[in-house]
Design a protein that fits this description.
332 residues, alpha/beta, Rossmann fold, 3 domains, 4-stranded parallel β-sheet, 15% strand, binds iron/sulfur cluster
Length: 332
């Protein structure tokens, strides 16, 4: 994904998108990790939890989700009467699938009612349907701490699970071996090298990173949390250990720049950035980056059957229960 101030946005495509949105009563929701030109034209940009929470309050009948497949599923579960469109249905989060039903059942057989299966929102509807509670990276610690069970199986992310386990030592947190391959690939040495190159910078890390990376962080939190921290902080330099797609929102919120389109390019060139952000090499989610503006427009123009999200009936009810409960708990 090219993250440059000169990322071109075809004006005729944007005009067509605006017309199609009006005709189809549609709204575009984009994840922070998608290409900046999509973020620039989206109605709302956020992380998967913030967008899921927001979508239930929107009046539009069609939701276009510029994100990966589990996000489309969550939107459909929470908005069953609405049309949910995924511009690129092939964009799929590998971590969302990284747990087996057999493992969950085997541990339930061992621990019985004293085991809670806690599922990160970045998971498929099937995985959610096997769980007892669904959490976000922001509320996972608080929810695990409040569970009556002593044993907790955390799925699918071993790194977020490990982070939670460290904060809640009174629980026996059992980890699964799934992870986000892109956050997991950032090495502690890489972060140490960035710190050596930018000694005044604060390290802001996503809890999907390994514990050795998190140990070097000044702040650990969700993408939304990282952006809010950088915006409020008096510091001027930040090493941001998550996917580089957040750079567009960081620049917008912290430096008033829009990293897409000709107007944005001019604004970026004219403005001296007050805050600077450094990223680990290769910190791009290829699935999120594979979504194009053309696909966003084409799914509204003439949606292919695979672009229209449907959740297999057997998972619908239990997975929706998990998401409803997650929104309820997050609101407390
Ligand atoms: S960044 Fe990682 S967790 Fe997020 S969608 Fe990509 S693969 Fe999945």
């Amino acid at each position: 994904m090219a993250l440059s101030a000169s990322t071109p946005v075809a004006p005729e495509l944007v005009a067509e998108l605006e017309r199609l949105k009006r005709d189809r009563d549609a709204v575009v929701l984009a994840h922070y990790y998608v290409a900046p030109e999509i973020q620039a034209v989206a109605d709302y940009v956020g992380d998967s939890f913030a967008l899921a929470k927001l979508a239930v309050s929107l009046p539009q009948q069609t939701l276009v989700i510029a994100g990966v497949a589990f996000m489309g599923e969550s939107m459909k579960l929470l908005n069953p009467r609405k049309t949910v469109l995924l511009p690129n249905p092939q964009a799929d989060c590998p971590m969302a699938h990284m747990v087996s039903r057999g493992m969950v059942d085997a541990l339930r057989a061992v621990y019985g009612d004293d085991l809670a299966v806690v599922c990160y929102v970045n998971s498929t509807a099937a995985v959610k349907s096997w769980s007892d509670v669904c959490v976000t990276s922001s509320n996972a610690v608080q929810i695990v701490r409040s569970l009556p069970q002593r044993h907790v199986l955390f799925i699918p992310d071993q790194n977020l699970g490990g982070y939670v386990a460290a904060q809640v030592p009174e629980k026996n947190v059992i980890l699964n071996d799934g992870c986000c391959p892109h956050h997991h690939a950032v090495t502690p040495d890489e972060v140490a090298a960035l710190k050596a190159a930018h000694p005044g910078a604060l390290v802001l890390a996503h809890p999907e990173c390994t514990d050795l990376v998190l140990k070097q962080a000044d702040y650990v939190g969700s993408t939304a949390g990282i952006i809010a921290f950088a915006e409020k902080s008096d510091a001027e330099e930040f090493i941001v250990v998550t996917m580089r797609g957040v750079e567009a929102e960081l620049e917008k919120r912290c430096n008033g720049a829009v990293l897409a389109g000709e107007k944005g390019a001019a604004a970026c060139a004219a403005a001296a950035p007050r805050k600077r952000f450094y990223f680990a090499e290769h910190s791009v989610c290829p699935d999120m980056a594979s979504i194009t503006l053309e696909q966003v427009v084409s799914c509204l123009r003439d949606p292919a059957p695979e672009q229209q999200v449907d959740v297999p009936g057997e998972f619908t009810e239990p997975a929706k229960r998990m998401l409803d409960r997650m929104l309820e708990l997050a609101g407390k």
